[in-house]
Amino acid sequence: MNPTELAMHPASVALYGGSFDPVHRAHLQVARSALANLDLQQVIFIPAAQSPLKTTATVASDADRVSMLRLATADEARFFVDTCELQRGGTSYTIDTVMNFRAQWPNCQLHWIIGADQFECLHRWHRIEDIVSMLHFIVLQRPGHSIAESKVPGLKYTEVQAPLMTHSSSEIRFLLKQGRATEDLLPPAVEAFISSHGLYTQ
Prior knowledge:
Layout: E1 12-18, H1 25-37, E2 42-47, H2 62-73, E3 79-81, H3 84-88, H4 94-104, E4 109-115, H5 116-119, H6 128-132, E5 136-140, E6 157-160, H7 169-177, H8 188-197
Parallel strand pairs: 1-2, 1-4, 2-3, 4-5, 5-6
Helix pairs in contact: 2-8
C-alpha cells in the first residue's frame, strides 16, 4: 500500500516495523498504547523483508504475514498495513522506509515504535543519525531490559507504558509446533488463519 492511500495529510503517524511472524495480541496492545499516550492519527504496521540485525529468515511467507496483519487490524480504524519493505525486498533498512514516508508526507510528525531491547541497539542501526533527524521514537518496555541513556546523539524519544510482552513470536511459533494452546496470545482471526493454512507446524 502506498502511504498516500492511508491519509492525504496526516499530522502525526507512528510506524511499527517488525517481522510479525506471526502478529500477536501484544503487538496490537502496543499500538493501542501508543495511540492512547501520544497525539497520533494512525499506526502503520510495516512487515520487514529481512531485518539487518536478525540472522534467521521468517518462517511464514510474506503473503501469509501480510494476510495475518490485515486480519489482525481489520477492526481497528486507525491501524493500517504498509508493504513497502516487502516490495523493496532485500535487507529492510529503516532509513529507506522513513525516507519513503517523509517524501510522501513532508509535514507529518513521524514516530517509530520500538521496544527497550531495540533501543539498546539503536547505535548499530544503519544511518541512525539521519533517522533521528527525521522522527521521534516511541519506546516500550520489554522484560529484562531497561531504557538507559542512549548512545545516539540527538535522539528524541518518549517512553510509553504498555503491557509487557510475555511471549515473543518465536515462543508462539514453538507453542504452535507443539500443538499447545495459543488462543490467549493470538487474535482469533489470526489463530484461525494459522490453523486453516497449517502454519508453524513443521
